[in-house]
Amino acid sequence: MRIILCGFGVVGQSLVKLFDSRAEDLYAKYGLKPRVVGVFDSKGSAVDKSGLDFNKLVAVKKKFGTVKNYASTKNSMSGIDMLKNVEADVLIETTASNYKDAEPGMTHITT
Question: Which of 10, 21, 64, 75 has the most CB atoms around its CB within 10 Å?
Answer without folding.
Answer: 75
